[in-house]
């Protein structure tokens, strides 16, 4: 089945490859996108290599890095400059959302560890030691979440 809001159509009605995107909403809707790719490959790339967000983040970083040295040239092309500014603004907004979510997660984890420590101090210490070790082992600059 292919879903369009509350309407579901059998996939045989619509030709092509479909990919389900499940945005976090309160109303539980999934969006199905028809594209000319191989759904199995796209699914494997997302699960084994990088999510769409991570891929877009890397492309955004590269474009902004390439545009940086061209600041003077962009002053002469208002349209190009506007597009780079829009991309930089979008990237800053994405970073703000990530920071907000990171702060909320940090608060939740702190409260949970404090609760564990109040119940079982040794278990809390073991958990913190395990987390420190795992963080040290996974310190990969390219492995930052997007």
TrEMBL record:
It comes from the Bacteria. This is Uncharacterized protein. It comes from Prosthecodimorpha hirschii. The lineage of its organism: Bacteria, Pseudomonadati, Pseudomonadota, Alphaproteobacteria, Hyphomicrobiales.
């Amino acid at each position: 089945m292919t879903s369009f809001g509350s309407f579901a159509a059998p996939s045989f009605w619509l030709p092509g490859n479909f990919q389900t995107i499940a945005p976090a909403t309160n109303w539980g809707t999934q969006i199905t996108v028809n594209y000319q790719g191989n759904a199995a490959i796209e699914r494997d790339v997302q699960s084994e290599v990088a999510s769409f967000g991570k891929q877009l983040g890397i492309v955004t970083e590269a474009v902004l890095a390439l545009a940086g040295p061209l600041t003077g040239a962009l002053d002469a092309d208002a349209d190009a400059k506007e597009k780079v500014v829009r991309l930089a603004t979008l990237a800053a907004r994405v970073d703000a959302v990530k920071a907000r979510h990171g702060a909320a997660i940090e608060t939740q984890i702190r409260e949970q560890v404090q609760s564990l420590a109040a119940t079982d101090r040794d278990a809390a210490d073991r958990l913190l030691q395990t987390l420190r070790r795992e963080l040290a082992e996974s310190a990969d600059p390219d492995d930052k979440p997007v």
